[in-house]
Each structure stands twice: as C-alpha cells, then as structure tokens.
Design a protein that fits this description.
transmembrane, 145 residues, transmembrane helix, mainly alpha, single chain
Length: 145
C-alpha cells in the first residue's frame, strides 16, 4: 500500500489538490454542504465495487472517516486536529468530484488517483483514524449518528 500512498502523497502536493483544499476550507463552516459531500463520497465509494481486499479496506477506513466527520459536525466527537479534518474533507471532496486529475469516467485509472489519495490520507493520518475507531468502539458513540 505504500506505493499507492506515495502516489497519493504526490497528488496531495498537486496544484489541483491545493485548489480542492481551498474549496474544502470554504465548506468547513457549512454543515449542510458537508453532509451532502459525505453522502456523495459514501455513494461513490460504495459504487467502487471491487473484489480486491485492499480496496475494500480503503473504503472501510474512509467510511470510518465519513462517520468521524459526521460525529464532528453533530458535536459528539471533537478530538481531532482541524488540519486533519480539513485535509480529510478535501480528500472526500476530491473523491466526490467527477472531474479531477484523471477523470473518473476513464475505466480503472480514473479511480486509481482517487484511491491513491485515499491511501495517502489513511497512511498520513492513521493515528487520528485509530483514535476515532477506539472512541467509536468504546460505546461513547452509541446513540449519536
């Protein structure tokens, strides 16, 4: 997965991703728009059907991040660095955007850039994602969705 994460790290340094970060920053104070983004990203990830367990693992971790953002915006979880939240929302925005560095309508490689960026995010921010998973599994999250 490190080579996929390395490709994602290169994408994260691309001018287009910098533009996406700016767009994500504008969304951060708009919970309704973040909610729509979470729904779009969720549907896009569920549409990325694959029998490869690595892709399923990436999808499951990003579903966890979607739950994290949802918990952040409903006020039940705040133990996350704002920069991490911003970059994660930017990754979701990139995934949800049909036109990016490699457009998604191009079979296989159109989704590869999305997945590599997701892999980079997971690799770079695994501690934050793990901390949320522990919180979620502790039962503190029960009743808050």
């Amino acid at each position: 997965m490190s080579s996929l994460a390395d490709k994602g790290m290169k994408l994260s340094q691309n001018a287009f991703f910098s533009y996406i970060i700016t767009k994500a920053s504008g969304l951060m104070n708009k919970p309704v728009k973040v909610g729509l983004l979470l729904t779009t990203a969720y549907h896009k990830l569920t549409d990325a059907n694959s029998t490869e367990s690595g892709i399923d693992q990436l999808k499951n971790i990003m579903f966890r991040f979607i739950r994290l953002v949802k918990a952040y915006y409903n006020g039940t979880y705040r133990d996350i660095d704002t920069k991490t939240l911003l970059l994660g929302v930017a990754v979701l925005l990139y995934v949800a955007t049909p036109i990016d560095i490699v457009p998604d309508f191009i079979p296989v490689i159109g989704l590869a850039d999305d997945l590599s960026l997701v892999a980079w995010f997971i690799s770079a921010f695994q501690d934050e994602l793990q901390k949320f998973q522990v919180w979620e599994e502790s039962g503190t999250a029960v009743g808050h969705s």
